Batch of 3 targets.
Target 1
Amino acid sequence: MKVIKRILIIAKTLIKDRFMYPEAYIGGLFYYSIVLFVAYLYSHLGGGFLGNKVIPYYLAGLFMISLIAHETPTYKRFSVWREEILSKPITPDIFLAGFFVGDLIAFSAPALVALSLLLFPFIYRLGIYDSNLLFLSLTMALVASLSVSYFFAALGLRFRYDPNIETATNLFIAFFAGIFVPVQSLPAKVHIISYMIPYTWAIDLFRYSLLGTPTLFPAKSEIIYLMVGTVIALILGRLYLYYTINAIRKRKVIIR
């Protein structure tokens, strides 16, 4: 209970900060507008293998990225809160969980509500393709997001926050995980980059379970790829975070 209370205190602090500055949502709205404009253009080019499901396909991608893209906020939080994290007798896992929950409520929740309303007419007309896989993909997506966040937490402790790194990371994930352009439409030579991002499998499975759109590989294989990638990212990310903390305290690395 004590751990949960600490997590909620950190989350509450983040939520209050977010709602005190509503202009923070402007960037997200701009980002969504760009993606939906790309969807509009893509639909007028014929939509390729997506047929008439282009718009809900892109909306589903935005839904997922809004739910799971917490790696760059974590990088920022751990950089800004560096002194507290390194000096307080609280494990970094609690800080990470607090930031994660806070971002889910303060940023993800409003975006998810808006995107759900936009998706509803399509789902009402088409129905949900696989409800069990839908739940699994959402659950695994959150775990994958937490796993990737460990790496960025370590980077936040090592390096000063730089908005250019945040922007570049968001664009990289949006491009290679299939948010801007379906992975199937990317050159075959760069597919390996997409396959290495756990989000790719979570987003692909979510779209398939919701809309029945074609997947990169058979759904059962993608579930395995997502689970294995998530576990590997969680183990390596957590090890890297604790290695970074110990190295900083022993002055084996330079903090910038």
Target 2
Amino acid sequence: MKNFFTLIILLTSLSLYSQAHIGASGSYDLENEYSKLGVGINYMLTPKVTIGGGLMITPFDVDDDYEIMLNVKYNLGRFNIAAGYMFHEMPDDHMGMNMGSMPMHSSSENHNEPYVGIEYKLFKNKKLKLFYNQSESMKTLGLMMPIFNIGKKHMHHNMDHSDHN
């Protein structure tokens, strides 16, 4: 019975701050020179901690190239620090690395690797964010914007209460 109450209290306390954001992003991989489009979902566990996932594709530059990213973010005001794990597919001849020494084949390889990132909220009252993610095989710079929110709205302690008079 004690475990049941502990679980209920934990789920209730997490739901006090819970909010999901679904958003879209556009980015540019500085290392590979690929443009990327993405969609993601983030779930706010507490006001400081968010877990999320996303899918990025390169529709204009490389066929069948994608990245699936899972992460945890920590909020530091207008900055978010992110760390996660990325699953992606890369062409065999990635950046010309098969310079004749290896046989060329048309298949793609799957790669899994950790990454780190930082987000910066550009405007205080807007949700538009500039982000930078880096891993062993990518350095991505881009913009992301929430499309819609699911869940509770948060009251900010520094709100102007003059409209309540």
Target 3
Amino acid sequence: MRFNVLYIFWLAALLGLFWIKNSFEHQNVNAFFGAAETDERDLSFDHPVWVTKIYVEPGKQVQRGDTLMRLYRTDLDSEIAERLDAIRQLELERAAQNNSLDNEIALLKAKQAAEASELRADVVVEESEALIQKELRQIVAERQGISTAATPDNLQSAQRSAVEEVIRQSKEPLYREIRLLEGQKKDNSALESAQIQQFRREIAALENEKARLVLLSPIDGFIDNLSALEGETVDAHNTLVSINPVKPTKVRGFIHETVDLTFHLGDSVTVTSGARPSYSVRGVLTGNSPHLIELPTRLRKFPEIKAWGREIFIRLPPENPFYIGEKIMITMDAAPAGK
């Protein structure tokens, strides 16, 4: 009987299918694949800015704190000028108010001094008249041969004391009114000082905003994309520049839909380079998705066969040996749950 070569082909196909099935059933369920990824940083401002100078270009490596761009905001200068004008206006108003109060105080003092002077002048006139009368009496008495004895001028002393008491009493309401006016000056100064301090705080905040217009790199990385040109105005929240870290920051892995693993966020896992098995570090499980998605071709055990799985996210240590986009094997420490 003639041997048919198709028998060999069908036998090999059956053996291949058996091997694939056996591989799926006996694969290490605690190990699966992922890719090293990074979080791109898009830098923008919450106000429209004008790009005055750019110091980097796509592909350039930068260090944290390096100057990337210099920017300008015209509204900051106008707002600072408005507050400086407001401070000057407050100072002028306070000076005018204080000058008015000082004039009122001086007027009160002058009025009181004039009244006191008038009272004292009246006493002087009366004393002069009394002295004249006394001298006339003495002359008349001498002509008539009548002797006169010198008597103390108690009446004049009493009059002077009474006038001084009137002057003293008249000062009391004056002093009260002056104290009220001086207190009003202090209140005006305190209010003006508080308002000026508030304006100065706002100016300091605006100056800080101007200082922030020097765009610095927040991380070590390389420039991925420049979205602005020198001399261009960029709208608020629009990306100015994109930076990628030098090292990947996370691994995005895929647990096959046929695998049921028990794990918890915060678990420590081993991540190993798929192409360089000698490079391995420990990562921390930070998140997972309950949705099944199709696995990327390069992460499938058999690229020709479509597969689905759940996403899982692992945070890498800052110093790790992996390349961005590198294929990574993830090994869980937890044992598989029973089915």
